[in-house]
Design a protein that fits this description.
Blueprint lengths: L1 H23 L23 E2 L5 E6 L6 E5 L2 E4 L1 E2 L4 E5 L6 E9 L2 E3 L6 E4 L2 E8 L16 E9 L4 E9 L12 E5 L7 H5 L3 H10 L7 E5 L20 H18 L9 E6 L1 H11 L7 E5 L15 H4 L7 H7 L2 E7 L5 H13 L5 E5 L5 H14 L5
Parallel strand pairs: 13-14, 13-15, 15-16, 16-17, 17-18
Antiparallel strand pairs: 1-2, 2-6, 3-4, 3-7, 5-6, 7-8, 7-10, 9-10, 11-12, 12-14
């Protein structure tokens, strides 16, 4: 009961903060050169991104005893003014999308001044920091596709589950069936991740309009799947992937191919994903060449760099990749691996790519500035999409 009372008090305090923000800061002088990120609810309010990419937070919470901002795992203590307004400026942040939380008297809550996104296994606040040259991640005056949420019946979970599906601008008039990408989110996220945080529609609209990518359908599923009978194992292993592999091949793909104008051959299918979804794409994609001819693996931790990952045996996990490389290469049109350059996984990823290349595995690799975060994954998909379905 005490915990519930603390939570309700914090929520009330933060709710009042939100109302105060709208009243107190509307006509306030903002820091020179700062801008309101697109993730703000009030475009005339806080937080503000400063010219050096540091972030200034300002919150009116006169009843609070302590207020902190938890941004990317770093906690910043806010300073209280005489009028009950709390402020803090963070260290400079790398460009991209960052989850954050407000901690009021020890209770972590979403900031009502921010839009909310499902990440970190909960509804989270977020701040978007601009990066020069990344115009393909923005909405432009080009033909726009559609993103719809639809539901299919899962025989694995014995329940109805959601998919978010992007169809390009020419989908309704296209005479031929379109290729399709099955794209997977990371741990603590769900089917909304790629379409909301990942900006998949903006990326595809702009690439297609520029002639850099072919029109294609993109399917984002919730890969947090557990079978009703207790599952098929867990973790980064072939056995641990069986529940979602069954979901993908027996439920998701048949649903999409029945209800959408997409190709039904392996060369017309791709599978990719980030972090946990990168591991799923690695195992399911590379061990199912009869289903997928294109695989993208972004920022996976199974090669190393996370707890429990060590001594990754590439040949054991994908039989034939090193001992029958010619056959492996013939089975895949695109095999693409990426990682952020500040990600703890980067050196392990580079090592595994080096090992594959020494055996002449046809793997493409790229790294991008950034840690384990969405700007790296947007760039990964942006590049992957440009390789797909062009070598036929």
């Amino acid at each position: 009961m005490k915990v519930v009372k603390m939570l309700l008090t914090a929520m009330l305090t933060v709710t009042l903060c939100s109302e105060a923000i709208a009243q107190d800061f509307r006509n306030a002088n903002m820091p020179e050169g700062s801008y309101s990120p697109v993730t703000n609810v009030n475009r005339n309010g806080y937080p503000r991104v400063l010219p050096d990419n540091s972030v200034m937070f300002r919150v009116s919470a006169p009843q609070a005893q302590q207020v902190q901002i938890d941004l990317c795992g770093t906690k910043y203590n806010m300073q209280r003014g005489t009028d009950g307004t709390w402020t803090v400026t963070t260290k400079p942040q790398v460009p991209g999308f960052h989850y954050y939380f407000m901690i009021v008297d020890g209770v972590s809550v979403a900031d009502p001044a921010s839009q909310t996104f499902f990440g970190c296994s909960r509804w989270s606040s977020a701040i978007e920091i601009k990066e020069t040259g990344m115009d393909d991640f923005e909405v432009h005056d080009v033909p726009h596709g559609e993103v719809r949420t639809v539901y299919y019946y899962s025989k694995v979970e014995e329940s109805w589950r959601p998919l978010m599906i992007y169809t390009p601008a020419n989908y309704s008039t296209a005479k031929a069936e379109l290729p399709v990408v099955y794209i997977q989110h990371g741990g603590g996220e769900d089917h909304r991740g790629w379409m909301e945080q990942g900006r998949t529609a903006q990326i595809m609209d702009n690439l297609i309009a520029a002639g850099k990518a072919l029109p294609m359908v993109v399917v984002s599923s919730n890969s947090n799947v557990r079978s009703r009978n207790g599952g098929f194992g867990s973790g980064y292993s072939w056995e641990g992937m069986q529940a979602f592999r069954s979901e993908m091949t027996d439920n998701i793909i048949p649903f999409v191919e029945k209800n959408y104008k997409v190709r039904k051959d392996r060369k017309g299918r791709a599978m990719c994903g980030l972090s946990m979804g990168g591991g799923q794409s690695f195992y399911i994609g590379l061990r199912s060449p009869e289903v997928f001819a294109n695989v993208g693996v972004f920022s996976t931790g199974m090669f190393g760099g996370i707890r429990g990952a060590s001594n990754f045996d590439l040949e054991k996990e994908v039989p034939g990749i090193l001992t029958d490389t010619r056959k492996f290469n013939q089975q895949f049109d695109v095999f693409f691996v990426t990682c952020g350059e500040q990600d703890p996984r980067i050196e392990y990823t580079r090592d595994i790519v080096k090992k594959m290349r020494e055996k002449n595995v046809g793997v493409r690799f790229n790294s991008y500035p950034g840690d384990h975060e969405w700007q790296v994954w947007r760039k990964s998909f942006h590049e992957f999409a440009q390789y797909l379905f062009k070598g036929e």
